[in-house]
Amino acid sequence: MKQLNRNKTLNLIGEFALEALLYEAALYPKPGLVDPKSCGAHADMNYFTFIDSSTALAPFLTEYANLGFNHEGTPFALFEKVRTLGQLAEAAMLAKTKGVNTHKGANFSFALLLSATGKIIQDQKLELPFTEKDTAAIFDYIKQMTKGLISKDFAGLAQKKHLSYGEKLYLEHGIVGIRGEAELGYPALKNSALPFLRQHHNREQQTLFLLLLLHLMATIEDSNLINRGGISAWQNVQKQATELLQTFSINSSKKELEDALILFDQQLIKEHLSPGGSADLVALSFFFGRLEGLF
């Protein structure tokens, strides 16, 4: 790949990731989540906080891809490099949002996915758009990058004085969160979200992604929900999302779907519940949709 084409491709990949963050924030209505008309179950942030956060992360998104493209060494060595850069990105995000955590989980995943994308482009001399096989290669490489991540990160938690909510969930319930999703190569994306998008990508985009959000809410282990409301609250949200999916389809009335989701949003606001893990996966799904030229 020539230098000019390489730079153009890597910059474009970074732009796709930024678009994904912005499109997810703009998607409306999202139950319990921040969107342009609702702060969801979040008293400390709004739609503009997400715009600020996205712009703070923007330069790092392209740098993640460059880091992968230029990497020589083991997958784990790339993970160590990208985790260090990811910590700088998180600090920049928190500085921009005055300490509000908007995209910590999304930043972690994009750091992995973008660096793996850059590495796969380097190794296989790929061009955009990607095929399903190209996307699968990224997930396989991430599994190599993150092998043993949970056991390493969660070693010695019982002796640790101050635990993050993710660490508490792991100790109390065995919930592995986004680390577990990464170590398995993002099965929620590979086996569920992306097949749905590939099948329906030519449909109306807002309806498509609202249904994708519901599908993720109904199926994934969302540590954000569990942290806020416990296992029973998470399971109840899963049940309600499943019921909505049984009522609405890709061919349903957009107005009726929106009305139902607004009511769901009002309920989750009262219960202080936010499916943030599902929202991050919506953004990641959009990113891969752009990589594959679906949108």
From TrEMBL:
Q: What are the alphabetically sorted keywords of the record?
A: ATP-binding, Nucleotide-binding, Transferase
Signal peptide span per the entry?
none
Q: Which family does it belong to?
A: Belongs to the CitG/MdcB family.
Entry's EC annotation: 2.4.2.52
Known catalytic reactions: 3'-dephospho-CoA + ATP = 2'-(5''-triphospho-alpha-D-ribosyl)-3'-dephospho-CoA + adenine
What's the gene? Answer: citG
Report whether Transmembrane shows up as a keyword of the record: no
Q: What is this protein called?
A: Probable 2-(5''-triphosphoribosyl)-3'-dephosphocoenzyme-A synthase
Under the heading PANTHER family, the entry gives: 2-(5''-TRIPHOSPHORIBOSYL)-3'-DEPHOSPHOCOENZYME-A SYNTHASE, TRIPHOSPHORIBOSYL-DEPHOSPHO-COA SYNTHASE
Q: Which top EC class is named for this enzyme in its record?
A: transferase
Q: Is ATP-binding among this UniProt entry's keywords?
A: yes
